[in-house]
Design brief:
mainly alpha; 3 strands; elongated
Length: about 220
Amino acid sequence: MVQKRAQVRQQIYAYLREKIISGAFARGQRLVETQIAAEYGVNKANVHEVLLALQKDELVRYEPMKGFYVQGIFREDLLEIAKIREVLENAIFEDFLANAPQEEVDKAKLFTQRKIALLRAGLKAEAHKETLATFETVYANTVYQRIVGILRMYREYVDLMIIQAFERPEDVSMTIQNSTLLYEVLDKRDFELAKRWTSIRYQNAVKKAKLSRSYRERSVTDGA
């Protein structure tokens, strides 16, 4: 019974976290504990524990006598995670390019080819799946599984940055260029070229986060 409650809490946590990070729940939206508890068939105490965990993640805020509200994501969050991603993925790609079996590198090349073709056809959601498949191939063929674990902790944020990366036609064109560069990285197994590719992606992520109106900067009034 205790294990089942823990599993349900984890389900609620994952659901609310994904909805907040994706923007499905708007900033300032109230999260009603009794309503969530009724939806999952658990008592209010379980939901309260989940919301406290989300508060620790700085995704929700608590207002005394009122309840929990969606805080959302700050620009600084995305900028920091983008930098973490650049540094850690450099290490993973260096290991992958140096040591992965050729058939695994060829698999990653194929996913990248498909992504480029899908982007050119305007099929962004399908292209995103090929991006994930490419990274899963790289992640499965590196000794740095602790680093992979850290990156997986930020998967929702990374997915959000990937989706944001081609909102406009010019963004799609730039993403195609970056993906073409990735194909060259894999084809040549060239780590110096890979560092250039990760740097470009980081710069693009920073630019998108700074320009986006969906996120605000953290301030003293936000309780940071």
